[in-house]
Amino acid sequence: MNKKEARVRRSRKTRARIAEQRATRLVVSRSNSHIYAQIIAPTGDKVLAAASTAEADVRKDMKNGGNKAAAAVIGKLIADKAKALGIESVAFDRSGFRYHGRVQALADAARENGLKF
């Protein structure tokens, strides 16, 4: 099993548990140069809000989209968008990534800005 297969296996278990709960998900995905966050409806078929370092208005304010500072900005942005939609509580879906570094920075920033998970 390679690194990607192991991550996908971990993410399947988490998503199955969240699907049973019928909870709104905060999904985090990352690449070497960007980090992405989406809020997905409990049915799993609709993206309610999204934020990423690949967006033009976010990119103009930061030098690098692949660091913890950029992840914190995206965490704040996705929390603000969720509050605007009336979403206060979500299930955190880290897509099999370790809760460390950029993923943790995004989660901490989202919590500090009023999102509960």
List keywords for this structure.
single chain; 117 residues; alpha+beta; Nucleotidyltransferase, domain 5; 4 strands; 18% strand; globular
Largest sheet: spatial strand order: 3-2-1-4
Listing every helix as H and every strand as E from the N terminus to the C terminus, the arrangement reads HEEEHHEH
| CATH fold descriptor | Nucleotidyltransferase, domain 5
C-alpha-based Rg, rounded: 14 Å
* Helical coverage, percent range: 40-55%
Q: Under the CATH scheme, which class?
A: Alpha Beta
Strand content: 15-25%
On the 0 to 100 scale, the average pLDDT is 95
The count of helical stretches stands at 4
Structural class of the secondary elements?
A: alpha+beta
Name given to the CATH architecture: 2-Layer Sandwich
Kindly report the oligomeric state of this protein.
Answer: single chain
- Overall, the morphology is globular
Polypeptide structure, described:
The structure is a single chain. With 117 residues, the protein is α+β, with helices and mostly antiparallel strands. The protein has a single domain (3-112), classed as Nucleotidyltransferase, domain 5 (2-Layer Sandwich), CATH 3.30.420. The chain is 44% helix and 18% strand. It has helices at 3-21, 56-59, 68-85, 102-112, and strands at 25-30, 35-40, 47-52, 91-93. The chain has a four-stranded mixed β-sheet with strand order 3-2-1-4. The model has no long low-confidence stretch (mean pLDDT 95).
